[in-house]
Amino acid sequence: SMQRRLNRMMNSSRDHKLLALMVVEGFDPKEVTVTVKDGKVKVLAEHKEERTTSRGKEYNYRNIMKEISLPPGLREDEVTYSL
Which pLDDT score, from 0 to 100, does residue 7 have? Predict the structure, then answer.
C-alpha cells in the first residue's frame, strides 16, 4: 500500500528528511519536472495527448503542480528527489 511504502521510505532515510511525497500516477517520468529555486521546490507533471478521430482532433491535457517551501537553513543544493 502507499502508506507502507511511505513508512519504508521514511525509515530508510534516517539521515535525510522527507519533505514531500507526491502521487503522479498516470504520468510518464519524462512528463515530470522538478525545479529547486528561490527557496522552493516546484513539481510539475504535464501530459498532452492529441488524437485524430472520424469527428476531428481530440486533445487531452492533464497537469499537477505543487510548490513546497524549503525549511529554513536547508540549502537548495542539498535537495534530492526520485521518481
Answer: 62
What is the per-residue pLDDT across 21-59, written as a single tens digit (0 to 9) for each? 778 888 998 999 999 999 899 999 999 999 998 999 999
**Dist. CA 11–CA 22, nearest whole Å:** 18
C-alpha cell belonging to residue 18: 522527507
Positive/negative CA dihedral, 74, 76, 80, 83: positive
Contact 47, 60 (CB under 8 A): yes
3-state secondary structure 9-67: HHHHCCCCCCCCCCCCCCCCHHHEEEEEECCEEEEEEEEEEEEEECCEEEEEEEEEEEE
Tell me which fold the domain 22-71 belongs to. Answer: Immunoglobulin-like (2.60.40)
